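Data card: per-record layout.
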Amino acid sequence: MNNNPLVTIVTPVYNGEKFIEQTILSVINQTYTNIQYIIIDGQSSDNTIKIINKFLNKIDHFSSEKDKGMYDALDKGFALGRGKYFAWINADDFYFKDAIEKSVDYMEKNKLEWIVG
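The structure for this 117-residue chain is written out next.
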């Protein structure tokens, strides 16, 4: 892909130790590499933060503080974003390894501002 716009991806999480590692790995192992990855934690009390800390060198921004829920966390994360495109992935979801590449390619080729999936 010749065009390589920045994609901001935000993960809101609270007590997500069961799946957060799989989620993080699915983002940081994308075939598309121009990604700004932001994780906003709602001050988890389980092992979520410990798991996230293993990947801090691959995460552009991580914060853990009380919030008002998922949409508050998303708002905080998106406010930090610099991408042409923005996405979010919940802490119990994962991307296929070429999901972002295919999405950006489709959006760029078709001059789309957003897609839902």
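Known properties of this structure: Helices lie at 20-28, 48-53, 70-80, 99-109. The mean pLDDT is 96.

See the next section for split statistics.
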